[in-house]
Amino acid sequence: MGGGVPTMRSTTEAQEVGPPGLQPGAGSTLFLEFNKSIPDLSPEDLKELLSPFLDFAKQRSASVQWFDNVTLPTSRRRFKNATARVGMDREMVVAAIGKPAHKVRERDSEGNEIEDWIYGTPPARTVFVRFTGDRVNKHQAIPSVA
Known about the structure:
The protein has helices at 43-50, 62-68, 73-80, 90-97; strands at 7-11, 29-33, 102-107, 113-119, 126-132, 135-142.
């Protein structure tokens, strides 16, 4: 990691100024102080440095937490079918089939931003999910080539 081991400290001192709606002193602040410039840290490196203070074991994405709160069994079954459907937003797609291996962003001939999520790699089964704006407008599964 370079830059040496940071000095870690926490504070519970009341803040005089904070975000609107937050009472002064509510919460705490963690500081990582490096004795040189801030080294290049991967997310995993940062988690390791913060692990004495924060538990990352139960870390989950917002979409997974959202899926856990879906209570209707029919809704859960629909998402577990592992398909993206036209009209789904990004969080719904992540809950249904997970994070994509690749993303491609470009503009169509009319200047609209489109984003393709690609699951799998040919010749294996590959799924393409196209977003126009915030919603799926097309999905296609290409079967594996035997």
